[in-house]
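Board notes (copied after class):
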Amino acid sequence: MSTKAIFEGAGEFQDELRHALCVMPISVGQYYHEGDKLASTLRLLERRIARCHIVVCDSLQRHTLPIFYPDLNIDIASKSRKLGHEWLMRNRELLRTLSIPYSISHWDDWLLSDEYTKQRELVDLAYSQKGNMFRAINATVAAFLERNIGLKSMPNDSYLKMQEHCFEYVKEECSVMPLWISLNAQFEVYPGKRTLGMAASYQEFVQAKYPDLLRWIRINHRARKVAAA
C-alpha cells in the first residue's frame, strides 16, 4: 500500500490554489509528517499550489514533552529544538525533491519576535474577557487532556501541572498563527481540523481584517493500492 494525499473540500479554491502561497506547520514526531505520508503531502503541494512556507513547530513542544515524558531530566527547551533539527536532517533529502519554491522557519523565529509579545497580550486579553476565546481555549485544553490522559489515575497536583502545560501550549500557538499574516499566505494546510482554540484565534485576529489570508485546508491521506507486478 502507498499513500495519496488530497486537499479535502478545497474545490472552490482550485484555481486560487494554483497561484497561492501556503503555510504548512510541521508537528515534529507525528506520523503524518514522516515517511510516506510526508512524501505524499509534498507531491500534493507540487500538484496544487505555487509556493510553500514550512513552519517546524519544534520549541512549541517544550510544553507537551513534560506531559509525555515526566521523568526527563534534561533541558526541555533544548530537547524540543534538537527534535526539530533532527526532523530537518531526517527529511532533508525528501524536502530537496520539492519542485516548487519553499522556505522554512522554526518556531523560535516567531516566538522570539517583538510581534509575538504583542500578539500574546491580545490573546491573553481576549481570554480574560471570558467570551469565545475563553471557551475555545478551555475546550481545546480539555480535549487534549482527555485524549492523552483520559481516565488515568494521578495525583491532583500532577494533573494541574499538565493542565498548565496545555494552557501554555494552546495560548502560544494561538498567538503565533496570526503572525503568519506577514507571509501573505493565502492558506494554511495541515492533516486535520483546526482546534477550537486556533479557529477562535483566526476569527478574532485574522478573518475580519485579512479574509483572504490563512484560510484552512485540511490534508487527508488515503491508502492507495499498488498494482501487482
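Comment from the instructor: Residues 2-224 form a domain with the Rossmann fold fold (CATH 3.40.50.11710). The chain has ten helices and six strands.
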